[in-house]
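Q: I'm writing up a methods section and want to include an example of the input and output format. Could you take the sequence below and give the corresponding predicted structure tokens, formatted cleanly so I can copy it straight into the document?
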Amino acid sequence: MTKLNKIKEKILHNSFTSLFSAKNHEQIHPSEVAKILNGLPVKTAIEAFVSQPGQSQLLTFKFLGKYLQKCMIEAMAHDQATFLLNNLNSTDRYSFFSSINGLQRSTLLKLLDDKNRKDTEDMLGYPAQSVARLINTSFCTINKDMTIAQATEYLRLHHEDNDIADVVYVTDGEGKLIDDIPIRKLVLNENSKTIREIMDDHYIKLVIDNSVDDAIAKFKQYNRTVLPVTNTDNVLLGIVTIDDLIDVAEQKSTKEMQKFGGVESLEYPYVKTPLFSLIRKRAGWLIILFLSEMLTATAMGHFEDEIATAVVLALFVPLVISSGGNCGSQAATLIIRALAVRELTIKDWWYVMRRELFSGLILGIILGAIGFLRIITWQYLHWYNYGARYLLMGTTIFFSLIGIVMWGTLSGSMIPIILKKLKFDPATSSAPFVATLVDVTGLIIYFTIAGLIYLK
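A: Here is the clean output for your methods example:
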């Protein structure tokens, strides 16, 4: 039995003591403990968590899922919750309070001391996707006139040993950022040198109102693990670390995927979301899409005479319509991702339109040719009799697929850009929405072409 399985067995048997202890050689990383707790029944997980010392709770809390964090705080004694919330680092505290709202947020804010409450309320006032929500205020600063020996002694006396102390920041008397110094420079240079002598006067920073996307782009461009954050006057306010950014990026990607699939974003993991809440999140989009699909019946009703004249036309409705919807969903996926990673901007709309129209034309010709050959083959092999006008039927399918696929790729590529221009989330142009739009308009294209070729 592995060490983690032994710990899990202890928890399930209500033997919570020494869960984080080094005794019996069972010390494990807090993230591994959190992984176990996240997979347990909520009541059992809470009992195991609250039985541990406060410092152990601090180490594990940030790795717990948001739903379990909320349940933990609700179940804890007042003094335990007060200790935990006040001693979390600023980033983890902001992250927790961002995940709750309404009366619960107001109630729990009262547990914070004056400084933490003010800082938290200030950060919560920034947009949800700004780097302000990710700021960690436990950063290290030194003066440029210090020697390396003085700086090292100052850091030893005034800063905690934590996983974000890899870089120290040089500030002036007003707290303005001057430079960043990796700890390795303090170790590898002579103690008699001054900080001024080892500075390169070059640093990369974020500004408080930058978005998470801005931060991701800078971390990726400069290959950093931590970046300082300043206000517009260049006063150092805190830092953002890559691990915190990854967590937010993952949450953002999850929400976008859910929206793209036609589901309202879930506050908690799928397995922790109550059934009726899950139904409510899905029902809204399904109702909208169902009402939109009713237009398909309306469109077919408009071409009732054409269908009555040539019933064979109805056989190919699913074929041509699904092809357009699939191509539209493909285009939407590609463009939304390109916008998310900043390969494209809304200014590139004309480039995208030209590219997708040409792609749609080629794809339409390929699918149209397959559709045409299918009709000819079935007719010659006597698998189905399309009548004397089977060549015109094949030609109708050929040109219909070209038109519908081109329209699908155009719609799928342009809708995300239009939504981005209107300040909406491009992921809202979900695959079901694009497919529904192409279904309705595709029928019009199909029967219009049939009227010009097959029914003429």
